[in-house]
């Protein structure tokens, strides 16, 4: 899953898609489409488009801002590329519009907890990824070290189990569900690595696991590398996740991640 951040304040690369010569953030559709094309050429089968940054400390945007950023990219990708489009959003309105314009997956960091979100998904045929997050993006890391986790793995597991059950009760078929333990979302470095080490536990839910570790602080904190120098660490973490059952890897660096996936596949199938 390749990432397109249509935001000026993504922790990694969103501002790179801004039109030149503009003071306020205006998305350059051609740049975004070129990035999507390159990711697909490198092996991506999903493109995840987000219009609201969920990095630690991020400020919320209006629903209209999110629509203005996300929908034109989805339309452009749908017209040009044969790829599954994912919309990274928690807004029911954005979910509906994204699906109407070609998105086949909703990637929701709030696990359909926003009022109206689960109804929007129940009325569609799209897939949805349910992610665990403690708190909200603007403050989630401020309180992570003082969090009330007694057992981060079991508490994240139980949260996702309950959200899966709620979705099933609301008419969203199991075949449409993905889960994500939410690396970096209200968790310390130690929490993140314990979740990575115990990732196989989540396979017990019998729902495909999506993981996102690409360039995150859990990589930077142990390597001492800047955001744009975390490729090797991200690939190493990805390899551990694949060995523990991850089925989809969300990444900024598709080509290198595909190499890790291919090597893991060859290793797993060797007899």
UniProtKB/TrEMBL annotation:
The keyword Hydrolase does not apply. Keywords: Folate biosynthesis, Magnesium, Metal-binding, Transferase. It catalyses: (7,8-dihydropterin-6-yl)methyl diphosphate + 4-aminobenzoate = 7,8-dihydropteroate + diphosphate. GO terms for biological process: folic acid biosynthetic process; tetrahydrofolate biosynthetic process. It comes from the Bacteria. Its EC number is 2.5.1.15. InterPro entries: DHP_synth-like, DHP_synth_dom, Dihydropteroate_synth-like_sf, Pterin-binding_dom. Residues 1-262 form the Pterin-binding domain. Pathway: Cofactor biosynthesis; tetrahydrofolate biosynthesis; 7,8-dihydrofolate from 2-amino-4-hydroxy-6-hydroxymethyl-7,8-dihydropteridine diphosphate and 4-aminobenzoate: step 1/2. This is dihydropteroate synthase. It comes from SAR86 cluster bacterium. The gene is folP.
